[in-house]
Each structure stands twice: as C-alpha cells, then as structure tokens.
Design goal:
The protein is of the alpha+beta class and 359 residues long. It is built from 10 helices and 16 strands. Helix 4 crosses helix 10.
Length: 359
C-alpha cells in the first residue's frame, strides 16, 4: 500500500504549482482518458460475460464428490433416517430416509432418490475388520471382513471354543481400506469385487490362483457369508481377500525374487492397474474381553465359565453371545462393537458404508 501511494499519487502532488491553463489542459486530458478507460472496462465486462455464457462445449468435469449423502438426501427433523429394507440394501442404499430417498454405498451413484450401479471401476474407501491374536503382522495376503462378517466369525468359530479361544484370538482390528479393482475385471463382470480366495499363512490356498491374477490383476475379492448361520447376521456379512506380494508362497518362503516377479496389488495410491488395487491404514482395535464385559479372562475360565456353548446356544457366566440364530440379538452385537470403536476412537468415523459383494 505504501508503494502504491508513492508511485501512483506523487506525480499529481505538485499540480498546484503549475499555471492555471496548464492545469486545466491536464485536467481535461485526465478526464477524457479516465472516461475512455471506463467505457473500455464496461465493454470488456460485457464481452467477457457474453463469452462465458456461450455454450461452447462441456465445462470441465467436477472432481469426485465427498462420500456421504448429497444435499438432497440429508437427514432432518422432517426427513429422518429410517431402517433400510433388504430390497433397499441390495439396491445400493447405505442410509435410508423417511421420504423414500437414500444415500448410496461405494460402487453406486445417487439417481432419482435411489441408487444406480456404477458403470466403471470405482475408487472406494471403507472399513475392513480382522479377528486376531496378540501378534502383529501385515494385512496383505490375508482375509478380512465387514463388521457383521467379523462379529459372526467370532461368534461362529472363535468363542465356541473358549477357554482358550480358537487361535487364541483376543481382539478385533479395524482397517481403513482404499481400493479400486481393474478394468479387466469390470469389463467381464461389471463388478467392483473379484472372487474371494482363502488365505492361510499369507498364501493363497485356492488351486491355480496365478491364472486368476494373470487374467484380472491382483484384485480384491469378496464372498457373501449369507448361508448357514451367517444369514442371521444379514446381507452385509462379507469376507474379503487382499492380495500382496508373492501370494502363492507361505510367509516364511517369500523370497525377494518372488516378491519382485509377483508384486501383488498393495500400493500407496490405488489406480486400478493390475499391480495397484488397494492400500490399508490401521484404524484402531477393540478387545473381546471389553466387548463382552469380562474383566479377567483367565479367572473367567478358571471359574468354569464359557463365552458360548453351541449345544445350549448360550454362555455360562456370559450372556453376550446368547442366540446365534437371533437376528435382533446379532444386530445388537454388531452395534455394540461399533459403539466400542467409537468410544475408544471418537475422532474416527463410527462406521463407513459397506459395499455390496457383487461377485
């Protein structure tokens, strides 16, 4: 501002020292030039506005919209969130509203108050979960699950063998997953996910895994767990497979040469290419003891208690897992797990919309 005052106003500071005629001539020239400048400025604005309003072709596409409901599907006192029906869930709805509209899960786009399946591979971000013992190891070349999927797994396979629990599992870990599968996969199936492959000791246990990855790339797979007792946990009971480097060899036999030749799909910025389909970030964990309300697991067991007994469909000294085939009780268990994550990690989103397993 100081430089503008010096450079712009100083030439006119001594006008009073000049003869009157000279000052009048300069004033007249100044007014004429100023008027001409104003006219040109107005013409320029008119031309610019007209050019900007012409339909010379499509404007640049906007960037991706943030996840969550659009302004037309936002909860309000007059339009509260309601439970989604199974039909709404299978149609791609994440949250449903009283007026019949809904926000959409990853892999779907909002359309006419509802959701329409995406027409190309989508970059999707959501939570996966894994039941784990006290050891820490990478997520690549492992299986994970939705929240419903992991709670069902613990219920169906872990606590039924309590004292000790199956695989000595003590906690549920949460991961923020960002993924985009390949165009080769979408071109054949119009699906966001590929086939699920079972992993054991960080290697694929499905016959001829390599032909699958040669064809589609190192894709993230899914499997619905909605048959058997999994059906009582609902449509979002899903397992996933995440393919890392050297995926056909156990963790203690993965050589540097194998990792270089078979790099897997884990990368820093998934882009849907055959070797860059997913990444993960740790997003907290909860203990099974705290979830179930057990203060001292060793004493719980030594006192003759059991978390869940399949033959009686209930626990001894613990009621958290009572009723494996009770959908309402199962929903409460899932909500309890989500609430515990929120309590321990209040700065993280409670949940993320779970994509449908569309393979």
């Amino acid at each position: 501002m100081q430089r503008f005052e010096q450079d712009g106003l100083e030439p006119y500071a001594n006008l009073g020292a000049e003869p009157v005629a000279a000052r009048r001539r300069k004033r007249t020239m100044f007014l004429v030039c100023g008027g001409l400048f104003a006219v040109l400025l107005v013409i320029g604005l008119i031309v610019g506005f007209t050019a900007g309003s012409k339909d010379d072709g499509p404007s640049p596409s906007p960037g991706p919209s943030p996840p969550g409901p659009s302004p037309t599907t936002t909860a309000s006192p007059d339009n509260p969130i309601v439970d989604c029906s199974d039909d709404s869930i299978t149609a791609g709805c994440a949250s449903c509203y009283k007026d019949g509209s809904c926000s959409c899960i990853p892999g779907y786009n909002e359309h006419d108050k509802g959701c329409a399946k995406a027409t190309e591979p989508q970059l999707m971000t959501f939570y996966m979960y894994r039941a784990q013992n006290d050891e820490d190891y990478p997520l690549d070349n492992n299986n994970a699950a939705s929240l419903e999927g992991v709670v069902w797994y613990v219920h169906n396979e872990v606590v039924r063998l309590s004292c000790p629990r199956h695989y000595n599992i003590t906690r549920i870990k949460r991961f923020k997953i960002t993924m985009e599968n390949t165009p080769e996969l979408f071109a054949e199936r119009s699906s966001q996910f590929g086939p699920f492959v079972a992993m054991d000791k960080a290697s694929c246990t499905v016959p001829d895994c390599s032909s699958l990855w040669d064809k589609y790339g190192y894709i993230t797979g899914c499997q619905k767990q909605t048959s058997g007792t999994g059906q009582y946990y609902g449509l979002k009971t899903i397992w996933y497979s995440l393919v890392g480097a050297c995926p056909e060899m156990p963790f203690d036999q993965k050589t540097d040469e194998c990792k270089k030749e078979h790099p897997g799909g884990q990368c820093s910025s998934p882009d849907g290419s055959k070797t860059c389909t997913w990444k993960y970030e740790p997003a907290g964990e909860i203990s099974l003891d705290e979830l179930e309300g057990i203060d001292d697991y060793a004493k719980f067991c030594s006192d003759g208690n059991r978390e869940y007994v399949p033959e009686t469909d209930k626990g001894v000294g613990c009621s958290f897992w009572d009723g494996l085939q009770d959908p309402e009780a199962n929903a409460k268990r899932v909500k309890a797990a989500a609430a515990l994550f929120l309590k321990k990690f209040p700065d993280m989103p409670l949940t993320t919309p779970t994509p449908l397993c569309d393979w």
